[in-house]
């Protein structure tokens, strides 16, 4: 920690926040803060043009009802409304055996969420950021020096510029250097699994249904996307395999990969073909027990990373955004500055329990469905049958999927 911030630099380039990382979570924070009158510098090493190039990222994200409320409240709904596919029901099954659970809300309750291509989310966020004077966006550069002093924070960029603010926010993703430099301890472990992600064209319409098919080697998820411009039916695939088998799957030619995927789908969507590039990444759990320090807050994947089994990773980061903005707005209304220690302590307390609960449930499901053997499968299906017949339990799981459980920040409320 240093107090070497120069008056000249602080006066010339000072804003309320310095956000390190301009990805989905970092840029949503900048935009949500701007709508509340809070200014920011956003620093990102990437070139935005590379991030939104056609074919650069075939991934898609499930946006919960609460997260959609956030996008609506910060003015992104008009840009995104036509691009998302509603998730009207979720089918959960143990290897496509009898005893599945169907989560289908009543029509008046709306969908369980929406599926968006990551590229579409980025385009909407980046376009909005360019139009927002409260956001100073610094791209193709990175932080060389970060000083957190008594009266503010100062960051020297690799392009020679120096920016200053009251609060430093690390939104740099799982490998966050700022989090590690601050000495935050992480609870972490490897799942020894790898997720293969791509898009599929399929013969039959998906009827806005998401499939979560559990196999002993890992979950196999099919997530509905809008039909493409040619009217072809599409879904996103997240196929989890054991790390020991991952090299073999990665080496498969496309035709063999499609054959293996089709075998696990049991024909639910008819004939299939690839609709996007294949990507893969290792699956790990990490949770920072501490997410604030002197003039520092850590959000999104920099603070927590989990198995994609429930599709809650991005949504958890967006809850961080809503909570942090609410804490900042209320504190600044009382005359406190964004880097005030009381405000940061409130943010940490608020997010700590919620994050831990969601991550614990996700980790528990991963382990429960990963137990091999007929007896374990029979026990799971017995439990799933009980959930299917118990409206209160189904309501609990649907509320979790929508992201509307617990104390919700105002930005995530309708």
UniProtKB/TrEMBL annotation:
Recorded GO MF terms: monooxygenase activity
Cofactor: FAD
Segments forming domain FAD-binding: 16-349
PROSITE patterns: UBIH
UniProt entry tagged with the keyword Metal-binding: no
Pathway this chain belongs to: Cofactor biosynthesis; ubiquinone biosynthesis
Family the UniProt entry places it in: Belongs to the UbiH/COQ6 family.
Gene3D superfamilies found in the cross-reference section: FAD/NAD(P)-binding domain
Keyword line: FAD, Flavoprotein, Monooxygenase, Oxidoreductase
Name under which the protein is recorded: FAD-dependent monooxygenase
Keyword Flavoprotein recorded: yes
NCBIfam families, sorted: Ubi-OHases
InterPro entries xrefs: FAD-bd, FAD/NAD-bd_sf, Ubi_Hdrlase_CS, UbiH/COQ6, UbiH/COQ6_monooxygenase
